[in-house]
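Re: the 497-residue chain
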Amino acid sequence: MNYISTRDNHSPISAAEAIKLGMVPEGGLFVPSHIPTLKEEDIFAKKNNSYQDLAVWILNLFLKDFKSKTIKEIVNQAYCKNNFPSKQITPLVRLNKYTYLLILWKGPTAAFKDLALQLLPYLLKQAVLKTALNKEIVILVATSGDTGKAALEGFKDVEGIRIIVFFPDQGVSKIQKDQMLTTGGQNTSVVAIQGNFDDCQSAVKELFADQDFNKLLKINGYQFSSANSINWGRLLPQIVYYFAAYLKLLRNNNIKKGENFNIAVPTGNFGNILAAFYSYKMGLPVNKLICASNENNVLTDFIKTGRYDIKRDFKKTISPSMDILISSNLERFLFEITGHDSTKIKRWYHQLADKKSFTVDQKTLTKIQNLFVGYYAKEKEVKKTIKNTYHYYDYLIDPHTGVGLSSLNKYRNNSGDLNITVLASTANPYKFSKAVLHSIKKDLNEKNQYELIDRLNELTKMKVHRGLADLETKKIQHKKKINLKDIKEEIKDILSL
């Protein structure tokens, strides 16, 4: 299987090359030339397989230039008990007859990104070996919170790889910031940026496309790659957990073989729900994909109208990982839904760069709306959802999951759709203890984040995630803060160029 550019500006390449490069140097994203389709019987036959076995199965379908033995070794290294000590890698929690939470935060940094970013370093190392690259890889990451720490944890002290993480200084939670800034490792750099996540992400993309800067890197023995979901090696592992969820529903007789179900995903960059879309394309019997947004609801408006318009106020919310207006993976989705029409993709993304908006044609919009629905939740609604979930189900959720559940409830009220729905629960609630605690118990004096973690623990008796338990005592390792315009000079300084 080859990988092609969404903008038809790069020759087809192998999976290893696509993972090594991260994104198309001239702009655009790599996607598989075709999506493997599975028969119902093929999927059903995996009903009793372990998560690791499912991961090997899915990865083998897409990584044809990797040996199956190598993929199995990689998977077992990534999904070991040290990284995922839970009996189940991605448990399903039943809220009610129709709603199941897919718990994606059992990894080392308490966020769903761990499921991909514990695997990606092994994939990237193999990709470097397979392509005989004689340069040191420099991973550039723009993060709205969770990706940064998950990538740092995955790539920390990996030989032959440097990782540089940029994050919006005022755009992540205190816990997320401390997780990143306390990361050790000889190959890690973390830099705060004055601006929002879209600013960080756009700057990183521009660096990938900067031919002169890339020449300078190569002369000095470096090459850029990415750990964001713009890298296919980051997105691919996320497909696995949707298969795991469906098969567990089958195993527990919650649904019947071939019965349709819904998937709801709180998303900002469109990567997590894109993985759900690929699982549907591969053969999962999905009825609807419910795209949940916070008040930065550009995706909601797009799904309803076909117009993608980023000319709007950027809002800082209690679900900061979704505070995004430019959803990178939407480009991959549009490429797929238009039948690989790169002409349309180039036109739309030129308009987005030039006029800050584009509108898809009616045929494309109809295809989108046949599968997707978009809803968003205001902050007040998210807090109410967190409170009600704890009160009625004795279960604690974080604000991002709260966005997803609130949006799902709106969809059900409007549509009457009672298909079983799997909702991606993307972060541990202790990562956002202030928002969660103030949602369920408002009469609180302001305290620091770590006192709030203790209060939340006292109130709910929910165990504090191991990745957060001693965070307050860790030493700050990274102290850089820069203006956005200085990002290139900062990289030069870090790499001694």
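The domain at 3-78+114-232 is CATH 3.40.50.1100 (Rossmann fold).
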